[in-house]
Write a structure and sequence with these properties.
CATH architecture of the largest domain: 3-Layer(aba) Sandwich
Shape: elongated
Largest sheet: 3 strands, antiparallel
Distance between the termini: 73 Å
CATH class of the largest domain: Alpha Beta
Strand order of the largest sheet: 3-4-7
CATH superfamily of the largest domain: HUPs
Structural class: mainly alpha
CATH topology of the largest domain: Rossmann fold
Length: about 500
RNA sequence: GGUCCCAUCGUCUAGUUAGGUCUAGGACACCAGGUUUUCAUCCUGGCAACCCGGGUUCGAAUCCCGGUGGGAUCACCA
C-alpha cells in the first residue's frame, strides 16, 4: 500500500485521544498500543490527550481510570494531563481559547460561518430530508447571512454554532497508510459544526487544531473515522497547515463481526485486569489482532513488539475478539513467570485472598500449569484450605468394577498409609498404595481416584501426593475415612 | 438508503506491494494418539480456507472489472 519510507526510523509523534465517558475501553488500549509502540520505537513522543469537550457525558473519574488502565498495560504517555508536557494543556476542556481563536480565523477567512438555526429547525429539516429520501445534512440557510448581520447577531448574544463552509464541488483525496488513496465527493461532506453553542469545539475542530499544535506526525485511529477525514483535510487546508499521515486501523469485532460492544463482549480493561489477565498477555493478544512478528510466532514480549512494530504491517480486516485465544496467551504468560513473580501477582492483585505470599508460593507448583486466569486460583486451591464436597457420582462411575466393601477396605488402609508414611518420598508412598490395590485385586486407578475425590473433592485435580502434602497427612486421612463412611451410608 | 472501508481454515493470520517456489504455511479451538493414578502441562498426528462470476496472462489467492457478503458512517458524541 502507501509505503512510507523512514516511517520506522524518523521520530514519530503519535497520540491517543480518548473521551472520558466510560470505563477504559479495550479499543482505546488497542489503538494506544500501536501509537505508543511507534513513538517508542522511533524515539518520538506519545501523547495522551483527553477529549472531554462533551460536557454532558465527560466525567473526571474516567480520565484517571483511563490513564491508569493504559499504564497497567505498560503504556505510559510522554505527555498527558498527568505527565504534563510542552504542548499542554492536554485536556481539551482547558483549551477553549485556543479553539475559539482558531475558529475566529476560519470565520475571517470565510472557511466557516455562524449558524443561528435552532435545534427545532434542524430537526424539521432532517425529518423533511428523510421523508424525501434526499441528501442529508445542513441545508446552508445561515451561510447566506452577510458578514455584518452574522457579526451583529452574535454580538447581541444570539445563541449560535460555527459551521465549516464546505465547497460542495469537487472531491477530497487523501492517502491512508494501510488502505491507499481514498476519495470522497465533497457533496457528501456536511457543513460540520465546529464550535458548539456552549463554546466548546466538536471533535473535528479540536482534533485538527490540537494535532497540529502538538506536532503530531501520524494519526493512527479506528477506521470508523475514515468518513470524516475530508472535513479534517479541509480544515488543514483552511489553516494552511500540512496534514499528518493517516493510518486507520481496523475495529475490534464481536463474534457477529459488528463493532465490539459491551453487550456482546467485556469491553472494559478493568474487567480483564480483575479477571486475572496479565497485562503483558493482554498487550500481546491485542497486538496480535492485526499485527504479527515477521516469523511465525504469536508470543512475544512487549519489548520485542516495540522493537519490531511497523504500522505498514497492520492488516485491514476487522478482527473478531476471541476470548479463548486470549486465555491461551494468558496461560502461556502465566507459565513463563517465575513462581516468585507469579506468587506476587496473585497476592498483589487480590487473587489470593486469605493467603500470604509464602503460602501461595508453597502450593504454586500444583497450579501454575493449570491457570488460565489468575482469578481461578482461589477456586482451584479451595480444597487445600477446606473440605470440599466429594463428587460421589463421579466416584461411583470411576469405581464401578470394584466391590464397594473392598474399595472401603482399601481406602481405610490407604488412609493408614498416608499418616504412617508421611514425610517419606512420593515414590515410596505410591508403592505402598499400589500394594494395597494389588492385595485386594482391584485397579490401582480406582484406589487413587477414591483418594483423589476424598481429598480434593473432584475427579480432575492437581497431583495426588503433592496435594496430600499441602492438605496435611492427618487431614487427608480424615477426609478419606469420611468418604468411606459416606460410601457406606449411601450403599 | 447514500457514501466509504473490508473480504484466505470456525477464529487470529502468512502469502497480495515486485503473478509461477502455494498439491495455500503457522497459531488458537476441535478431534485422535502418546506421556501421566485424574486434570493440566508436554509431544505426535488429523480436520479445516483463497466469497462468486468474468477478464488479462503460458500461468492468478495474488492484477482488472462486475456482482455478493460483512462492517463503518451519515449528531451542537467522540
Amino acid at each position: 500500500m502507501a509505503r512510507l519510507e523512514g516511517l520506522t526510523t524518523t521520530p514519530a509523534v503519535t497520540r491517543v485521544a480518548p473521551s472520558p465517558t466510560g470505563d477504559p475501553h479495550v479499543g482505546t488500549g488497542y489503538v494506544a498500543l500501536f501509537n505508543w509502540a511507534l513513538a517508542k520505537r522511533t524515539g518520538g513522543r506519545f501523547i495522551l490527550r483527553i477529549e472531554d469537550t462533551d460536557q454532558a457525558r465527560s466525567r473526571s473519574e474516567h480520565e484517571g481510570a483511563i490513564i491508569d488502565a493504559l499504564a497497567w498495560l505498560g503504556i505510559e504517555a510522554d505527555e498527558s494531563p498527568r505527565a504534563g508536557g510542552d504542548y499542554g494543556p492536554y485536556r481539551q476542556s482547558e483549551r477553549g481559547e485556543i479553539y475559539a481563536d482558531h475558529c475566529g480565523q476560519l470565520i475571517e477567512k470565510g472557511a466557516a460561518y455562524r449558524c443561528f438555526c435552532t435545534s427545532e429547525r434542524l430537526a424539521e429539516m432532517r425529518a423533511a430530508q428523510k421523508a424525501a429520501k434526499g441528501q442529508m445534512g445542513y441545508d446552508g440557510l445561515c451561510r447566506s447571512l452577510t458578514a455584518h448581520e452574522s457579526a451583529s447577531r452574535a454580538a447581541d448574544g444570539e445563541p449560535h454554532v460555527v459551521r465549516l463552509a464546505v465547497d460542495k464541488s469537487g472531491v477530497t483525496r487523501f492517502t491512508d497508510l494501510l488502505r491507499g488513496e481514498i476519495e470522497i465527493q465533497n457533496r457528501e461532506v456536511d457543513d460540520q459544526v465546529l464550535l458548539k453553542t456552549d463554546g466548546m469545539p466538536t471533535y473535528h475542530l479540536a482534533n485538527v487544531v490540537d494535532d497540529h499544535l502538538m506536532g503530531v506526525t501520524i494519526i493512527m485511529r479506528a477506521e470508523e473515522w475514515i468518513p470524516s477525514v475530508p472535513k479534517h483535510v479541509m480544515l488543514y487546508d483552511a489553516f494552511e497547515w500540512s496534514a499528518p499521515t493517516y493510518a486507520h486501523v481496523p475495529l475490534l469485532r464481536n463474534a457477529d463481526k459488528s463493532k465490539i460492544s459491551k453487550r456482546k463482549n467485556p469491553t472494559s480493561i478493568l474487567w480483564y485486569r480483575d479477571e486475572g489477565f496479565l497485562p503483558e498477555a493482554m498487550l500481546n493478544f491485542l497486538a496480535l489482532q492485526g499485527w504479527r512478528p515477521n516469523e511465525d510466532r504469536e508470543l512475544f514480549t512487549t519489548e520485542e513488539f516495540v522493537a519490531e512494530f511497523d504500522p505498514h504491517a497492520i492488516s485491514t480486516g476487522g478482527p473478531v475478539f476471541d476470548m479463548t485465544k486470549l486465555e491461551w496467551v494468558n496461560g502461556e504468560k502465566i507459565r513463563e513467570l517465575s513462581p516468585d513473580e507469579l506468587a506476587s501477582r496473585l497476592t498483589n492483585g487480590g487473587f489470593a485472598e486469605g493467603w500470604t505470599r509464602d503460602e501461595v508460593l508453597g502450593v504454586l507448583p500444583l497450579f501454575q500449569e493449570r491457570l488460565k486466569r489468575l482469578s481461578e486460583f482461589l477456586d482451584q486451591s479451595r480444597y487445600i484450605r477446606e473440605t470440599v464436597e466429594p463428587d460421589m457420582e463421579g466416584l461411583r462411575k470411576k469405581t464401578k468394577k470394584v466391590e464397594p466393601a473392598l474399595l472401603a477396605t482399601g481406602l481405610r488402609e490407604a488412609a493408614e498409609v498416608l499418616t504412617s508414611m508421611a514425610g517419606k518420598s512420593h515414590d515410596e508412598q505410591e508403592a505402598a498404595l499400589r500394594a494395597i490395590a494389588d492385595r485386594h485385586e482391584f485397579k490401582v486407578g480406582a484406589l487413587f481416584m477414591g483418594l483423589r475425590i476424598a481429598i480434593t473433592g473432584a475427579m480432575a485435580s492437581p497431583p495426588l501426593l503433592p496435594s496430600v502434602d499441602a492438605v496435611g497427612a492427618e487431614e487427608s486421612a480424615r477426609r478419606t475415612l469420611a468418604l468411606v463412611e459416606q460410601l457406606a451410608a449411601t450403599a
